[in-house]
């Protein structure tokens, strides 16, 4: 990769000065039900970061979990180059430019409300590795891994569908945790299921992901759609000086000014945090009741129970939502 060395060096100094006061993430944090033991679990994040702020919360959480070894972040759905710039800058200011960034399949033009935070950040200045073909990089990492890879899918899944098309054997070498679907409840605790965004944007990709033959665990709206930090928990987030958390709140403030489809109050509370639950389910499943559910993915984006359909593991109900929100706050701020 060719870089403008002088410009990139100046940018690196600026980013370091802006964020160094907070220090690096702590190596340990509060235990929780199902906490995985060492060594760290290899994981890949596939994300449409920049559309909803919850992906950025999930990335900050991943950087705060030493039990999970984040091997790569691949951007998915829409303007994957802008999303890759966002990931790269976030990783760089968090002191984690050791993590490669992959650019996923380009799609339709979808606004990225967090783009303002990027300013003139140049992807070529990222100190780490950037893969122009993120799907191939993902396949290569999974196929060469000596142990099963955990794949977090936190958006519509065209990259996953394409990876399965190119190399179906990845299904035998990975497992999936996805923020996906609406089984018995809809948005904001509605008793009526909804066409959940990640599914509705690409039902065929979701169908391919569910039916590939690997283990799929989903955080549906039934549980993931009810998470919001406020009060003392949120004030702890605001007061935290970790670089990743500071960058998270900066992004939240930028994002909140540009969206009108959800409640956002950066001084008082988070928006709905769908995606962090999918991350937690990989190693800390005890906060939820997880059940096998036969799900049909319809062409209009619903995930409906259907006898004989492919079963996915679904976090259907909470055992301890308060405990999860305490855990999330503790892990982000340590």
Gap from first CA to last CA: 35 Å
The number of helical segments is 13
Tell me the β content. 15-25%
Within the CATH hierarchy, at the fold level, what is the topology?
Inosine-uridine Nucleoside N-ribohydrolase, Chain A
Largest beta-sheet characterization = 10 strands, mixed
**Can you identify the CATH superfamily?**
Ribonucleoside hydrolase-like
Number of domains: 1
Reconstruct the topology from this structure.
Blueprint: H1 5-19, E1 41-47, H2 54-62, E2 68-75, H3 80-93, E3 101-103, H4 115-118, E4 130-131, H5 134-144, E5 149-154, H6 158-166, E6 174-179, H7 197-200, H8 203-210, E7 216-219, H9 221-224, H10 231-239, H11 243-256, H12 275-281, E8 288-297, E9 303-305, E10 311-318, H13 321-333
Parallel strand pairs: 1-2, 1-5, 2-3, 3-4, 5-6, 6-7, 7-10
Antiparallel strand pairs: 8-9, 8-10
Helix pairs in contact: 2-12, 5-6, 6-8, 10-13
Describe this structure in words.
The chain is an alpha/beta fold and 334 residues long. The protein has a single domain, classed as Inosine-uridine Nucleoside N-ribohydrolase, Chain A. The chain has 13 helices and ten strands. The protein has helices at 5-19, 54-62, 80-93, 115-118, 134-144, 158-166, 197-200, 203-210, 221-224, 231-239, 243-256, 275-281, 321-333; strands at residues 41-47, 68-75, 101-103, 130-131, 149-154, 174-179, 216-219, 288-297, 303-305, 311-318.
List keywords for this structure.
334 residues; ten-stranded mixed beta sheet; alpha/beta; globular
